[in-house]
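Dear colleagues,

As part of the handover before I leave the project, I'm documenting each prediction I ran so the next person doesn't have to rerun anything. This entry is a single chain, and its sequence is reproduced below.
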Amino acid sequence: MRPAIDHDDVVESGVYVRGNELRFLRAGDEGDPPILLLHGGIVDAAHLSWGAAIGPLAADHEVYALDLLGYGRSDKPPGPYPTDRHVEVVAEFLDVAGVGTPDVVGTSLGGGIAIQLALDRPDLVERIVPVGAFGLGTELPSGRRTYLRSRLAFLNRLNFWLAARRRGWLRQGLEALVEDPDAVSEELLDAVQAELQRPNAGRAFRSWRKAEVGYGGWNTYYYTRLDELTVPALFVHGGKDHIFPARWAERAAGEVPQGEVEVFEEAGHWLPRDRPDRFNELVTSYLAE
């Protein structure tokens, strides 16, 4: 089993969607309410974002933690990889894997996918928990520099190359996503470095970023549609998230008919790793309602 998972009874499996294999982790008892976990971008994977959450959530749910197309051990076909493609693939995965109608918890890019899935296919979703979610605002984290970096793929490849070979470089990058430096353990560093060394690591992210970053800001913007959301939503965010600010989540919750928000004031962008105990308790409590 993959490292960085704090749970022993996890089974890894795969299904084919549109000719590509999607790998996923499953835990919990068959017949319990299903929950789908969607990780973020860059070089993320199911076990990286959700390794500390699978065990607690599996106590009451049948957990499916998916490696998105182009990430982790899932296939990495050529792009493009706009958010729309991820949403369509996730929707088909639910059918092919026989997941049923799950609660969907997504972090960062995965949070945006959860929101769009609930908007486009509410029949497939019970509730959503977007965590530090993409798609709730338009401003770029570094302004026009983010746009330029999205057009200079070699800079991303160089950063990946350095992170895969220089432990300090990688630690610095991960610590920028959290407020608790102890969250970046040696085991987690090992696991991220292993993902960085996979063939075509980062290709899906570079393609996604090029599709989604416009000169004036993010191209995907769900805020204007949130009043159409028919499923309950709990927006969870870190108060010190420097990528997608917490005010996005606070504003979004007010637009959703059944919307709630929880801001962890002393947390960064990667909440499931930054504050795992509090995060797991919050999500478990919310989904038990």
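Strands lie at 11-17, 20-27, 34-38, 62-66, 103-107, 128-131, 213-214, 217-218, 233-238, 259-264. The CA atoms of residues 164 and 194 lie 8 Å apart.

All the best with the project,
I.
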